[in-house]
Amino acid sequence: MKKFFILFAIFLFVFGQLKAQKTDTLSITLDNVKYPYPVKYFPINTEGQDIKMAYMDVAPTSNANGKTAILFHGKNFGGYYWTNVIKALTNIGYRVIVPDQIGFGKSSKAFIHYSFHQMATWNKRLLDTLGVQKTVVLGHSMGGMLATRFALMYPERTEKLLLENPIGLEDYKTFIPYITTAQQYQTELKTTAESVRKHYQGSYFTYWKPEYEYLVSIAGGVTNSADYPRWAKVAALTYTMIYEQPVVYEFQNLKVPTVLFIGKEDKTIVGKSLLTPDQQALHGQYKFLGKQTAAKIIGAKIIEFDACGHIPHIEIPTEFLVALTGSL
To answer: Which of 33, 78, 115, 171 has its CA 20 to 30 A from that of 100?
Structure first.
């Protein structure tokens, strides 16, 4: 009888663990993550592979002004975190298109050569298919690098460039030690929900709030998937893309109206863990980088936010949305 109770206790523990894992586990294409608006898919063929790019295409809710905005997410995110921005823009008459870039969110996790040039081309083709000739381009974090590349490649299609705490304001390869994609892959494999939370708390926000937990549940949830190694490999490939494809030397070539929105407490550095604390203190200082970048772009404006980190549209939504809509 004692043996039976021991076995039964073990069964309950294992069942509990499996149930918890099932609850916390997300597919690497976020099939079980509900986006705020219907998701469609744009087919792409590249490097002999048929892949698909997820996107939301949201109509204005009132007073349509005939204008469009496209939103480019950051590296650790997808279209799901743009909800309040979509609502604000559709409320003032904009059609809003929100892609998950290839390798992110609900889009294909393809083993390909990742390139900001290629991503910009795919987004331009998406706009062509949707009949959009000109658009406001808003890019956050890595999306800021992509938005900059898009505006450089397609200035005639860019009505205005809006950069929300973009990364790439420095050339990381000039001070971050080089590691191979394979080495970065091993680092990505060690990601857990707790390591994601620690990173977000320490790097993205000045003060952690419970409402930010959904970001952790998504980024951490995929780590429990049996397919997570594929996600990790793509994350490593896009890390290499950021490291090897700087835009910092080309800001002076932008020929479109540009506004930077900068949370001054942001200290984001791609590859930060590879630096000593003393080295970290020399870089990622957005209170300086924002102004330096704005000075490089002809006619650029900068709007700075005190007591705000890497994601103004989430940390200080009211202030950000007032500044954003005012800039349009």
So the answer is: 171
